[in-house]
Amino acid sequence: MIELVLADRCIACDKCVRVCPSDVFDAVPAAPPVIARQSDCQTCFLCELYCPVDALFVDPDCRTPVDVDETAVRASDWPAQYRRDSGWGRARRTHANESWRMSDIFAAARALGQETP
Predict the structure, then answer these.
(1) Cα–Cα distance for residue pair 68/82, rounded to 1 Å
(2) Are strands 2-5 and 25-28 parallel, antiparallel or unpaired?
(3) Cα(56)–Cα(110) distance, rounded to whole angstroms?
(4) N or C: which end of the chain has fewer CB within 10 A?
(5) Number of domains in the chain
(6) Has keyword Acetylation (predicted)?
(7) pTM score
């Protein structure tokens, strides 16, 4: 679930706002976006992938928000880890982008979402 927008790293490009399928963020003119609907986060990591300056931290727990130590996050490479390991941005040269491997999982999720209760 989205936990942090690191305001001092953010360049207010609003890419995270535009790519979020759950409309979790609210854009703020000339400022970092605000996490407005955290409970709607699907933990898809798209915001982290598209953030060109690694200003976001998404925790893998997709069910509940976690108490995140911002100092520990800043001291680690967590904000850049998923983007790097997915082969996005500068990591294109050193890490293969293998997100295509998720296609079966996405198809299964789509099918589940189309089932009527």
Answers:
(1) 17
(2) unpaired
(3) 26
(4) C
(5) 1
(6) no
(7) 0.74
- What is the reported pLDDT for 56? 95
Indicate the helix (H) or strand (E) that contains 5: strand 2-5
Biggest CA-to-CA distance, the chain:
45
Could you list the residue range(s) of the whole structural domain that residue 10 is in? Answer: 2-114
Q: What is the pLDDT of residue 2?
A: 95
Please report the pLDDT score of residue 35 as a whole number.
97
Assess whether pLDDT exceeds 90 at residue 74: no
* Contact assessment for residue 19 and residue 46, using Cβ atoms and an 8 Å cutoff: yes
Secondary structure tally for the chain: helices H, strands E: 5, 4
> Sorting pLDDT into bands at 50, 70 and 90, what band is 64?
confident
Tokens of 115: 């089932």
